Amino acid sequence: MRALLLENLHPQATAILEASDVAVENHGGAMDEDELIEALDGVELLGIRSKTQLTERVIAASPSLCAVGAFSIGTNQIDLAAAARRGIAAFNAPFSNTRSVVEMAIAEMVSLTRRLPVHNRLMHEGVWNKSADGAHEIRTRTLGIVGYGNIGSQLSVVAEALGMNVIFFDSAEKLALGNATRMPTLESLLQAADIVTLHVDGRAGNQGFFGRAQFEAMKPGALFLNLSRGFIVDVEALREGLESGAIGGAAIDVFPEEPKKKGDPFVSPLQNVPNVILTPHIGGSTEEAQRDIGIFVSTRLRDYVETGSTSLSVNLPNLQLEFPQGAHRIAHLHDNIPGVLAAVNRELAEHDVNIEGQLLATRGDLGYVVTDVASGLTDDAVAALGAMPGTVRLRVLS
């Protein structure tokens, strides 16, 4: 089995896959569609971060691909529906870099509130400007968190421990942690928060949702952070707010357009604006987080190819499986239509194959039945299962 790992993934990912006799090829940067199609010829496993786009075109041109790992929180770089239709399991790391993003957000809040970017620039220019003007503690200030998922909720706890008042808004129903207060609307949060920080997901509906109207609704002089997705913010409107003084400062880690690889030029309307921190999408880029992500996602990929386990897959029905000794495992991914399980069992019975264990899970339009048999599994039986109506992908593990 072959794996292609892109975008400088942690060496632990390679080590885990190679320990399972997977031949791993590493590539430092991202790839465009044509490069990726060529590189995926004969490859079963793909590992990417946020720059490589696994589009429907790439998926359709890569029949050997059976699983992809997004070594990141988000999966919007993968066409999950197209992958599911072709039986390609997708995995991500929803928790592994949470703490790294939270710590960076806290550091940037302190830096902006104390106006450290301004003082740092003046010192490098040879200007000594010791003053308390415009500098504040974050204690007792109100933090408004937009998006109360894994990162937003953990940030809520840490910020409260530092003495901040925490309010949050999320379109889904979320349990408030500690003394955090859920706000009924985004507008009510913007009007009350001294610092607004975005931690929303990459769904298409979030594109451009924070623009001029939202910046104008913020408290005068409030601070703004975006460590989630670049395409959700109108950066031109943010620059206008910063230059007018309506926005007191900003920290931006993600951008609508980002360079493909390290060393490529970067251009943004937010460059050279006072009290602005710009970082190259490194919110989750600590050695600890990248190691944990490398271990977590590569383990999911390994378990899928070895046992058929789809636990924590973001696009296939979830089954957590261990591989029994001395058995063949038939992993049958199919359209979620009535009668498939009975048809699988009927085919096995007609070919004199005795079932030792069986599990079924469904998710949306897909069903996933995993059957363990001790002996008697013939090529004819496998061919019959693969030819069944509604079959998406059939794998035999032994």
UniProtKB/TrEMBL annotation:
Q: Which PROSITE patterns match?
A: ACT, D_2_HYDROXYACID_DH_1, D_2_HYDROXYACID_DH_3
Q: Which Gene3D superfamilies match?
A: 3.30.70.260, NAD(P)-binding Rossmann-like Domain
Q: What is its EC number?
A: 1.1.1.399, 1.1.1.95
Q: Give start and end of each ACT domain.
A: 329-398
Transmembrane domains' residue ranges? none
Alphabetical keyword list: Amino-acid biosynthesis, NAD, Oxidoreductase, Serine biosynthesis
Enumerate the CDD domains for this protein. Answer: ACT_3PGDH, PGDH_3
Signal sequence extent: none
Record pathway: Amino-acid biosynthesis; L-serine biosynthesis; L-serine from 3-phospho-D-glycerate: step 1/3
Q: Name one Pfam family in it.
A: 2-Hacid_dh_C
Listed under catalytic activity are: (R)-2-hydroxyglutarate + NAD(+) = 2-oxoglutarate + NADH + H(+); (2R)-3-phosphoglycerate + NAD(+) = 3-phosphooxypyruvate + NADH + H(+)
* UniProt GO MF annotations: phosphoglycerate dehydrogenase activity
Give the PANTHER family listed for this entry: D-ISOMER SPECIFIC 2-HYDROXYACID DEHYDROGENASE FAMILY PROTEIN (AFU_ORTHOLOGUE AFUA_6G10090)
State the protein's purpose: Catalyzes the reversible oxidation of 3-phospho-D-glycerate to 3-phosphonooxypyruvate, the first step of the phosphorylated L-serine biosynthesis pathway. Also catalyzes the reversible oxidation of 2-hydroxyglutarate to 2-oxoglutarate.
Query: According to its UniProt record, which protein family does this protein belong to?
Result: Belongs to the D-isomer specific 2-hydroxyacid dehydrogenase family.
**NCBIfam families per the UniProt record, alphabetical:** PRK11790.1
* Protein's UniProt name: D-3-phosphoglycerate dehydrogenase
Give the organism the record lists.
Answer: Demequina muriae
Q: Which gene carries the instructions for this protein?
A: serA
